[in-house]
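Internal tracking record. Fields below are filled automatically when a chain is submitted to the structure queue. Please do not edit lines marked as system-generated. If the sequence contains nonstandard residues, flag them in the REMARKS field before resubmitting.
Queue: standard
Priority: normal
Entity type: single polypeptide chain
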Amino acid sequence: MKNVLLLSTVFLVACSSTTSGPEVRASAPLIYVQSARQAADITECLQEKVLSMRETSYANTTELAIGPRASHIDWLITLTPSGSGAIVKVQRSSGASDDLPEPELRFDIARCTT
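SYSTEM-GENERATED OUTPUT FOLLOWS
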């Protein structure tokens, strides 16, 4: 009985694990491009294409967190103004779900940054 309880607890902890912003920010970028479009234009375009996206702005940087819940981030898109456009950095969490596959996100990023 003790083993069943312990196994159940371990299973619940594993299922409830979250991917935080700092963990994703520490990962290597999958996409790092300079766009001629402004960060606000890219954000507006992506909001039309991607579900479960949350926007956070501070100083001159915009972060777009993509994930099924506020406590879990699958993808993090950072938009930083640069010249007449923006630098776009896309990072994926190590525990990302397949709700938004990488090829689909790459296509959306390409459409919204050109």
